[in-house]
Structures are given as structure tokens and as C-alpha cells.
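Quick entry between incubations.
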Amino acid sequence: MKIGILTIGNELMNGRTADTNSSFIAREINLQGWQVEIMMSVGDDFATIKSRLHYLLTFADAVICTGGLGPTADDITTAAIAQAFDLPLYTDQAVLQGIKDKFTKYNLRWVENNAKQALFPQGAEVIANPVGTAAGFVLPVADKLVFVIPGVPSETHRMLPEGVIPILHRHFPQPVEHAIKQTIKTFGLSEAAVDERLAEVNFNTLGVSVGFYPVFPENHLVLIARSDSREKAQKNLQKAQDEVTARLHDCIFSYGEQTLEEIIAAALTEKKLTIAVAESCTGGLIANRLTDVSGSSIYFERGLTTYSNAAKISMLGVPAEIIEKHGAVSEETARLMAEGVRKLAGTSLGLSSTGIAGPTGGTKEKPVGTVYVALADVNQTVCRHHAFRWDRKRNKQVSTETALMMLKNYLQEK
Amino acid sequence: MKIGILTIGNELMNGRTADTNSSFIAREINLQGWQVEIMMSVGDDFATIKSRLHYLLTFADAVICTGGLGPTADDITTAAIAQAFDLPLYTDQAVLQGIKDKFTKYNLRWVENNAKQALFPQGAEVIANPVGTAAGFVLPVADKLVFVIPGVPSETHRMLPEGVIPILHRHFPQPVEHAIKQTIKTFGLSEAAVDERLAEVNFNTLGVSVGFYPVFPENHLVLIARSDSREKAQKNLQKAQDEVTARLHDCIFSYGEQTLEEIIAAALTEKKLTIAVAESCTGGLIANRLTDVSGSSIYFERGLTTYSNAAKISMLGVPAEIIEKHGAVSEETARLMAEGVRKLAGTSLGLSSTGIAGPTGGTKEKPVGTVYVALADVNQTVCRHHAFRWDRKRNKQVSTETALMMLKNYLQEK
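Done. Structure below.
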């Protein structure tokens, strides 16, 4: 089946807002085994919406429109689409009552303009909005379908899978019934290197498609297996996953949607371990990532961003002579920072970073991007040296990811 | 002048890559006073590129295409465009030599396939690529122009302003000669509230356009004044800026592109002040923001993420009785955290945060989003209470921004 996407709004045409809905919709449509034939953006203009929609319908079996469903004067999508097919508008009483109820509930003054959001083209079926006031609709046009949903990304993200896709399945029954998805998250290889390692895997013969999604500094793979039987799809997906694992096992950290910090959170909680962090070049970003998980206070005791040597000496007990002899950016300092923060906080583990984020501060021996990360438990301390080559912010991000990977690997081997 | 944008690539149609070029191009085009009439994305397919390009040319004076200029088999944009206008391809010898020189310089084996990147449709003018191997081109078609540049965002971001826009100006001379831009960054009001405060300002009569760019938790405004004289544009821009300042002065923190942390960095450096940070709910994010600025080690002494009560007590000297009586999330604790970290670090200033980021941990008296931020100098401590209503990550972000704004205001009033 061929799908067209039409995103509507002046804010798209003047570049004020980047259109993130199109790629979201395209990804979800692709996941169903359907094809996006054309994607287009237009401003809030009657004649334009009308003519572009007719153009899209010459290529696509269904067009998904987003945007222009608000209560204000420049929201004209519903009226424009009714006009495009010479249809009158009708008021859906249930939708109208729902909007009025919300006004009562939140003690807002009713303005008649809001009744506009209960208007739909004759023949349209309402698509409920579980997270906002603007309902969507689907309008059958000959043997094709025109969908209209709000352009607010959080609403699009709910109404597409919950409203639009089930109607598409009902209206265009597909021979391929089962699509199973598996996300695999990796860190440590460039996208090109991941691609190269997987070059010999023949995903096609397994009926599996593979997508690459770089999310700096991680690279995510999405495998989708399709088959007429669920068992076969599952079997093929497992085979493809095994092939990927065989080639990328050293850099895979997650099978599924879990973030690195969520995996660490689960492992620390399960093993009843606590952690404290001493950061230099990462500047608080390791602590920030670890505390992005709700409930992190159970295992995260404290984090110190010891930027000055005085802080490293007085709080972490790194001897001044060590810093003088080896430098604040050195394996010796990194080890003592991890051990020092662990002792100070009385935690099971201590994690540290020290390095040169740049762009200034590099030397010939220790250029910008030189980073040491160390992890200490009660028995031993491990330390790794890295040489990164990004800008300041990315050096901080990739150093943080490296430290978290070290922690994750430790927790999984333990 | 009306512009069409055509982004080309299978990765756009399957949602693997989000199209960020269209909104970038739209914004830059808008800045010139031109209008984007239509934006479209298509896959790497001869017939489709050809037909969609002809469709765009029925609306637009110029079409800007991106993507599909690489050396591999699926990069077909140049050939498809030549075909669309029945033009043969020619090899540009200078471009070919440039590519060969790069291979020699980097000691790469020459593969004949790469010569493809030196092919252009007859009649096209080459547009140099200052940051990659794929050159772009402009092709005059009757009285219109078709531009083709690479889809790699870093290359698009250079070649659009340096290559495409000057050619557009040359080919379509504009009566409006001078456009001056001013970014104004605000924090503390929703986009709708900013809009409402500015509702009465008549930017049109000043010849000034205004764009809103929300960058959570900030809202940025971009004013663009256009006039046939530079002086007049400058004068009108100043008038518009004064109107904005009169209405938004309490939430403007930057006139220009400087970030909040860069403004703070400049003020701390100029006043020779140092700072230490004690964080609870922001989890290291304040330290991370402050250390995003190169050279921050001059003023940033240390940051403590005191997640546990033990850390607040032992390192910051917050008395256990205060935490017991008022709670870790309280004005009293926030004040003592700021004072404690300042004393501990021996800095001019101490900045602190304590709150409930959520989604768990809220109570009836102190719901999720309750946050206290405090700033201490040698003479006094100020503390503010806030009630936010976002998710965990956004509560951390908005709390951090609030703490940094407090610091910035202090530094500017001092």
C-alpha cells in the first residue's frame, strides 16, 4: 500500500518549526510493511491544501495529514478538506460536549470559537484524541482514505498508532500479517563501521529489514521481521539478531528500548549496590545521566564535579604530589578519584572521569580528547585511557557514555 | 520570489533519517524575504524525481534539491535531473581533478565510480563544496533555476548561504537590499504568553518580521528588519527591539546568539568571581551546563550532586535537624546547601537546587515539580520557590535554567 504524508502549517514553511511528524509517520508506516510514496508540507491556505491533497491522492492509497486543527482563525485544515471534496461540515455533538466538559472542568470561560473543533466534513469518522482537545478524522474518498490528525508531536505520536494504523489495517487488509520489531543499541563503532561489519549478513533472505538510527554517541539498529506466520517472523528475527550479535557483541548494550542508564539502574538495584561519581572533564554529565532515571536516589549516593585540583585533593584525597607528578589528567589521578569518592561516600562503587574536553587545554603529550575513566570497588580499580576527537560538548558526551559502559560491563560480569 | 524545496533520499521515506534540511533552508530563505511555497521529499527513483521536480516548477521560481549526490549506485539525483530536462551529462575536469587530488592526498585507491561525482547536466554551473567531495550545481530551466546540493546537513549548512543564496540574488535581483537580524532569547514565559504580550506591537509597519523558536525551556525570538537602506533597517530593528524589550524585559536574557552559560561565563570572568554548585534534583545538570563553556575551570571550582541526606550533612554541613524538621526539599535546606558549598569550596558564590523531579516522590504539601534554588555570596543568600509541572527530564532542565537565570541576574545587578 502507498501512503502520502501532508504536513500543514505556516510555521513549517517559514522554518520556525522543523517537521518531525513526517519522519515519525514514515517510520511507523514502514514498520507495517507499507510504503511512503510522497511527503509534502504546505502552509495554512485553502487553495493550496486543496490542490496538493488532490495531487497526493493521484499517487497514494491513503493520505495522512497533520496540523491546522486548533481553534484559532488560521487553523483551516478541516474546512479546506471539506471544500476540496465539496462536502458540507457537520457538528459532532459528542465531540462538542467533550470540549465543553473540559472547559467546565478546568473552569475556563467558554468561547464560541472552540465549537469549531467539533466540526467535521460530512462522511468523516471521528478519531479520538486521548491527549488533547483536537479530535482527528478519517474521510473515505472513492476507494481511498484521507486522515487528518493534530500536528502537535505528542498527539501525533498517540493518534497515529492508536487511531490511524488500525483503520488502515481494517480498510486495506494485508496478506502480510505479522511484523515483529527488535531494537538493538550499540556504542563504540561509527555507523559506517557497523554497516561494514554487517555487510555479509543477508537480511533479505530472512525477510528482515534493518534500519540504522544514529543517536550520538550511540548507534541504534532496528530489525523488523515480516511473515504470514508469527512463529516464522519470530524465528527469522531471532536468526537475524543472532547474526548481528555475532558481529557486534562487543558494542551492543541493549536489546530493546531501555537506555544505558536504565540498564545500569536495574543492575544496581538488583544487586543492591550503590555508587558515587567523581567527575572532571565530564562536568556533571555522568551524574546527570544516572539521575535521569526515576528512583535513582536508591543507588546514586552523590556525585562530585571536582574541577579544581584543590577539590580533588581536599575532597577525594588525591595527593597533591600525584597531581604534580602525573598531572590531573592521568591514569593515577583517575584511579585515585574513583577510589576516593567511593571511600568518601561509603558506596559499593566509585566511578571517575578526568580528561581534556577542549577546545583549549591540550598539549602534545595529552591532546584535546585525552580521557581516563576509572571504576573502583572494594577490591580493585580498573582504568581505561581513551583518545576522542570531537568538539567540547561531544567529548563530554562520549566520555560519559564510555564511563557508563564501563560500569554496565562491570555490573553484567559481576 | 517563490521557492520549492525537494529533499531526495530513501532514508527520508522510510523514516530512518529525519529531514532537517527543509526547515533549515526554509528559515534561511525566509530571512531573505522570499517565500517557501512547497516542500517535498521523495525517494531515490528516476521517474519520481523527474515528475515531482516538474510539479514543483509549476509553483516555484526556483527549486532547491538536496541529497543523492554520493558516489554509490543509489545516488541518482544528477542523472535523474539531467533526464528530466533531456540533457546529456558532461564531466567537469576541474571537479574531477579535485576529487582525484583528494584520493592522492589521503592515499586512497582510486575507484572509477568516484568520477560520477564530476558529472553535471549540460548547461549547469558547478557550486563548490567547501566541506565535502560532492559538488553541487545550478541548472537554468527557462526563466527558473534548479539547484542541487548534498543532503549531509553540515554541507547543506555551508552551501546554501555560500553557494545558493548569492546565485538567487544575482538571478532574481530584489528591490529590498538590506536585511538585519536580531535574536532575542527569553526564559520564563510560554510561547503563547510571549505571543500575547507582543500582540499589540505592529511589527509590519516597522518592516520587521518576527519568528518564534522554542528551544525548551527557552523561547527565542528572531527579528528581521528589511529596507532599501541599511540605516533605515537598523533604525526599524532598534524600534522593534525596544518594543519587545518594554514588554518582555523581565524574561529576556540574551540579545544575540550567546547561551545563558556563556553570558554567565563572561560576567564571572569579568568580575573575577568563582562559583561552586550543590545540586539535588538537578542531578549534575547545573554543573554540566556551566562546564559546557570552554575555559570554565577559571571560575567553576567544583560541583556536588548531594543526592543523599548524608552527603548534604557531611559535605555541605546542613544540620540533620534542619532536614528532619523542614525536609531535604525546603527553603532552609536550599539556603544551607548554597552557603555550605560556598564555604567548602572557598568561592565567591554558591548555587544550589533541591526539589522533586518526579514522577515519584511527590506529596500533597510538596508535589512533583516543587523546587527551591538558592544563591549565596559572602553577605547574603537568596532563595526562590518554584512549582513546575513537566516530566522528570524537563523538570531537571527547567530547574537548571531557573538556577542559572538567578545567577545571571545577580551578576548583572551586582
